[in-house]
Structures are given as structure tokens and as C-alpha cells.
Amino acid sequence: MQNLMLAPIKFYQKFISPMFPPSCRYYPTCSNYMIKAIQKHGAKGIIMGIGRILRCHPFVRGGFDPVPDYFTVRRNKNPEGENKHV
Question: What residue ranges do the domains of the chain occupy?
Fold first, then answer.
């Protein structure tokens, strides 16, 4: 079932994405984020990935935003490995 959900994303990465310059404001890229979210959360990962794509626009700061261990469509506020500023 997971392979069925991942197939369109892999197709996009292999055939469509190379035709355009890199433009994702986040790391990992939106397509990689969706793959990792599906692997970690199953079908809910699709919702997380769509939420991430909707957050990726010119008015957002972007940066490091890994897939959280829990289901959410919001940005990971304190990702591991990122310095916490007080």
C-alpha cells in the first residue's frame, strides 16, 4: 500500500522536478518530506505532505523542518539538531 502512495511522488521526483530549478524553501524538500511522512505515518503522511506544500510559498522563511514523530500539519517548531534561541 505504501508503494502505491509513494509512486506518484517518485514519478514527480524523477521526471517532472528535473525540468524546473530548485525552489523549495524547506529542508528536506517538500517531496522528500512527503515520502518520509508517508513512511512514518502511513496515509496521514499524505495530509502532512499537502500541508507542507501549502506552507511552501515566497512569504515563508523556510529552513530545516523534519517530519515530526507525531501527526500534525503545522511546522515542526523545535526540530532536533536546531539551536534553540531564548
Answer: 22-70
